[in-house]
């Protein structure tokens, strides 16, 4: 199957969206957006509140059915090939989704069972990832005793247990102190460099996006208004900083919040029980 542009999925990148739209009744939340994320790339999605970021991520991760347009995840259609597509990615949403009454190891093990990871592979993966994220010594401790930074590291480790090719990170460092944020991104960059994991992230921290992401797409009112490297976006707007470029492209008006990412996490169960809406 080819994309509308005639490019075969294998040549189209790890994530491909072409003329993607999503309507809720009369509301057009995402309006004819197109972008591509290449294999092994760290790609950031930036936009004001209500811009369409959450709706886009839901379509990419099988939680919403596009109204029109094409989406491919590693060449797969997340609507007609949901099960195969879900195995290609891991997700870390903005709000916590760990079970506080389970240990770190139990949270990891349950995730592995959900994704049908064989017991031996699961055990080896849990040890490797908890050591990588500096949590192995706390594997037997209840998650409710963990700091915010430890929880975030555990969520990312858990999202990687089934060896996905893509990691979706929705505001992963929101509320974390600068030292913890820096440590978390060091781990993510290490994964990206050593294992070529493709990273798709959203963040409101402009300096973070500029430091971490190779390319950025800025979305506003459901449309992508600019794409490029941080340097290209600054050059395009004649700005000295990425934040200045962002404001030049989107304006400074305060926006209403999008649907809470708590709703996102509640809907994750639909990935394995229902078809996307």
Describe the structure.
- This protein is of the alpha/beta class and 277 residues long.
- The protein has 2 domains: 42-65 and 79-88 and 164-277, P-loop containing nucleotide triphosphate hydrolases (Rossmann fold, 3-Layer(aba) Sandwich), CATH 3.40.50; 97-163, no CATH class.
- It has 11 helices and 9 strands.
- The chain has helices at residues 53-60, 82-86, 104-114, 119-132, 148-159, 178-195, 206-212, 230-237, 242-250, 261-267, 270-273, and strands spanning 15-24, 27-37, 42-46, 68-73, 89-92, 166-170, 198-202, 215-220, 223-228.
- The strands form 2 sheets. It has a 6-stranded mixed beta sheet with strand order 5-6-7-3-8-9, with helices on both faces. The protein has a 3-stranded antiparallel beta sheet with strand order 2-1-4, with helices on one face.
- Strand 1 (15-24) and strand 2 (27-37) form a beta hairpin.
- Helix 3 (104-114) packs across helix 4 and helix 3 runs parallel beside helix 5.
- Residues 1-11 and 257-270 have low confidence and may be disordered.
Distance between the termini: 23 Å
β-sheet strand percentage: 15-25%
Spatial strand arrangement across the major sheet: 5-6-7-3-8-9
What's the average pLDDT?
86
Number of β-strand runs: 9
CATH architecture of the largest domain: 3-Layer(aba) Sandwich
Rg for CA atoms = 18 Å
CATH superfamily of the largest domain: P-loop containing nucleotide triphosphate hydrolases
What is the approximate shape? Answer: globular
Q: Give me the secondary-structure category.
A: alpha/beta
Helicity level, as a percent range? 25-40%
The main pleated sheet reads as: 6 strands, mixed
Order of helices and strands: EEEHEHEHHHEHEHEEHHHH
């Amino acid at each position: 199957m080819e994309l509308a542009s005639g490019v075969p999925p294998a040549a189209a990148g790890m994530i491909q969206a072409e003329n993607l739209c999503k309507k809720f009744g009369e509301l057009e939340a995402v309006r004819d957006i197109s972008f591509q994320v290449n294999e092994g790339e760290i790609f950031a999605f930036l936009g004001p509140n209500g811009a369409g970021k959450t709706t886009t991520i839901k379509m990419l991760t099988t939680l919403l059915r596009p109204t029109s347009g094409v989406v491919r995840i590693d060449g797969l259609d997340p609507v007609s090939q949901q099960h195969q597509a879900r195995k290609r990615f891991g997700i870390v949403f903005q709000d916590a989704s760990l079970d506080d009454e389970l240990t770190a190891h139990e949270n990891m093990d349950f995730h592995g069972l959900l994704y049908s990871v064989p017991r031996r592979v699961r055990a080896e993966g849990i040890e490797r990832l908890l050591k990588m994220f500096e949590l192995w010594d706390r594997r037997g401790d209840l998650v409710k005793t963990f700091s915010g930074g430890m929880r975030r590291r555990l969520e990312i480790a858990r999202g990687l247990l089934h060896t996905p090719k893509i990691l979706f990170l929705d505001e992963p460092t929101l509320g974390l102190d600068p030292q913890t944020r820096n440590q978390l991104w060091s781990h993510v960059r290490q994964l990206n460099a050593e294992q070529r994991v493709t990273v798709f992230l959203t963040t409101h921290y402009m300096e973070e996006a500029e430091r971490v992401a190779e390319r950025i797409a800025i979305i506003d009112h459901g449309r992508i208004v600019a794409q490029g490297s941080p340097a290209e976006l600054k050059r395009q707007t004649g700005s000295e900083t990425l934040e200045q470029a962002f404001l030049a492209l989107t304006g400074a008006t305060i926006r209403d919040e999008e649907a809470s990412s708590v709703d996102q996490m509640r809907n994750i169960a639909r990935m394995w029980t229902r078809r996307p809406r």
